[in-house]
């Protein structure tokens, strides 16, 4: 008989049930002949409400659960998953994984992460703050956000305001004897508004707030008002002629630029020789003042985790020191392919941080003098193999250290190798709403393609 997880409200009690299920799955895998196995079990519940133009548009409740099991027969690997937690379904899922493994070719690099690297001390990272929010309360908050943004008569339409809350738990275990899990929450408020002047000038922009603890969210009215200001500032946007100028990536888009760097140092890209940073370990890839590192144990942060998706203990790690690449981003498989050791990044990095400088965004704009401030990027014109970078953009033209007018329908281009080395400043306006934490980034020169 399976336990009804929906009836268990206490996060710790729910994790205990999931841990027992993982233990049972691993025992079943051993009973079916697997030489090693790993399993992950997760459950999550959530509420999302969207209002548009003062009316409720959607109210969504969701409740998901899943099991993923991987078995090894020597160096042969098989994986299967299910959302059914019944004993029969678990047995059948394990059997399916075993069947796949028996008919899969051997891969000398496959297998569990090394037993010595398993997390032995799982710290409490303060990631779980349930929000007792009813659908009616969520609607009221979303209404407040949208109403605060629709005060100006130039805000003529809305794509809606959304309030959401999520609570989940995940347990991972493997046949090294490791079983660990943690509960986490994530809450957010967002608003998307449309500003218009005349018959043809229409602009859209947004704002959002997200946090583990609802008490840390911006007020709904602040979210709506900020979205309105951003949309209004874009009215009257012009195009630019093609030129080479300094460019500032505002903090909300600068994380994407750093994300391309992560893609280039990820193990799967490196062992396939599909990165412009192959063989760049211990080489200069940024100016000497740049320090990029991860902080997986930050309390209450969105990217924190006590262990990675293989049970390997996470720890603070430098990726770039004094502009020099000091580490790749590796899981066990890619590490073995490269003749290295996992960095505890199966599933990605945790709170990747670009250390800020002393200037805020206004200070960077003043330092830039003349150039482009980018606040939105479009398209996916990035080639990690060559480093070539070309994306649609919009933002603001700056002269003499002051914003002059909004711009749109332009493309910014360069090569990531050059872009990274031409970083002149990193702002202290750090955006902490995601797993990459960075301020605005000033680039010495890029090509801006327009008319």
> How far do the termini sit from each other?
68 Å
Report the C-alpha radius of gyration, rounded.
Answer: 24 Å
Category by helix and strand content: alpha+beta
Taking all residues together, what is the mean pLDDT? Answer: 96
Could you name the key traits of this structure?
single chain; 451 residues; alpha+beta; PmbA/TldD fold; 2 domains; six-stranded antiparallel beta sheet; 24% helix; globular
Could you walk me through the main structural features you see in this protein, from its secondary elements to its overall organization?
This protein is α+β, with helices and mostly antiparallel strands and 451 residues long. The protein has two domains: 5-233, PmbA/TldD superfamily (PmbA/TldD fold); 237-451, no CATH class. It contains nine helices and 17 strands. It has helices spanning 11-31, 87-102, 135-149, 220-233, 251-265, 267-271, 332-337, 361-368, 416-421, and strands at 36-52, 55-73, 76-82, 155-174, 179-197, 201-211, 243-249, 292-294, 317-321, 324-325, 352-354, 371-378, 388-399, 402-415, 423-426, 436-437, 441-449. The strands form three sheets. It has a six-stranded antiparallel β-sheet. A five-stranded mixed beta barrel has the order 7-12-13-14-17. Strands 10-9-8-11-16 form a five-stranded mixed β-sheet, covered by helices on one side. Strand 9 and strand 10 form a beta hairpin. Helix 3 (135-149) runs parallel beside helix 4 (220-233). The longest helix has 21 residues, at 11-31. It is globular and about 70 Å long. It starts with 10 loop residues before the first helix and ends with a strand.
């Amino acid at each position: 008989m399976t336990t009804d997880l929906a009836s268990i409200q206490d996060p710790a009690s729910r994790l205990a049930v999931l841990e027992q299920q993982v233990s049972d799955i691993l025992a079943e895998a051993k009973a079916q002949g697997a030489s090693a196995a790993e399993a992950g079990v997760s459950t999550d519940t959530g509420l999302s409400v969207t209002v548009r133009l003062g009316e409720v548009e959607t109210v969504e409740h969701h409740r998901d659960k899943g099991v993923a099991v991987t078995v090894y027969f020597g160096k042969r690997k098989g994986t299967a998953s299910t959302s059914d937690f019944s004993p029969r379904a678990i047995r059948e899922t394990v059997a399916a994984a075993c069947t796949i493994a028996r008919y899969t070719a051997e891969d000398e690099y496959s297998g569990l992460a090394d037993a010595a690297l398993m997390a032995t001390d799982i710290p409490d990272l303060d990631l779980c703050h349930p929000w007792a929010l009813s659908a009616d309360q969520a609607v009221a908050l979303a209404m407040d956000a949208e109403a605060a943004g629709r005060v100006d008569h130039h805000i003529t339409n809305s794509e809606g305001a959304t309030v959401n809350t999520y609570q989940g738990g995940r347990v991972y275990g493997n046949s090294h004897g490791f079983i660990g899990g943690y509960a986490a929450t994530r809450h957010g408020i967002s608003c998307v508004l449309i500003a218009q002047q005349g018959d043809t000038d229409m602009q859209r922009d947004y704002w959002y707030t997200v946090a583990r603890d609802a008490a840390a969210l911006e007020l709904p009215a602040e979210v709506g008002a900020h979205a309105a200001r951003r949309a209004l500032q874009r009215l009257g946007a012009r195009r630019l002629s093609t030129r080479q100028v300094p460019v500032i990536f505002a903090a909300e888009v600068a994380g994407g630029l750093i994300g391309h760097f992560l893609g280039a140092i990820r193990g799967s890209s490196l062992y396939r020789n599909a990165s412009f940073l192959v063989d760049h370990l211990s080489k200069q890839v940024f100016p000497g003042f740049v320090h990029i590192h991860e902080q997986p144990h930050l309390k209450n942060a969105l990217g924190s985790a006590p262990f990675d998706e293989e049970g390997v203990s996470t720890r603070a790690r430098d990726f770039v020191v004094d502009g020099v690449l000091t580490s790749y981003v590796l899981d066990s498989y890619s590490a073995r392919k490269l003749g290295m050791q996992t960095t505890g990044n199966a599933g990605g990095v945790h709170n990747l941080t670009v250390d800020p400088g002393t200037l805020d965004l206004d200070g960077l704009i003043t330092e830039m003098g003349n150039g482009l401030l980018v606040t939105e990027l479009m398209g996916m014109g990035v080639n990690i193999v060559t480093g070539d970078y070309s994306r649609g953009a919009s933002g603001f033209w700056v002269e003499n250290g002051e914003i002059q007018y909004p711009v749109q329908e332009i493309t910014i281009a360069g090569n990531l190798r050059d872009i990274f080395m031409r970083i002149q400043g990193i702002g202290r306006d750090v955006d902490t709403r995601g797993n990459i934490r960075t301020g605005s980034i000033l680039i010495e020169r890029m090509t801006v393609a327009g008319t």
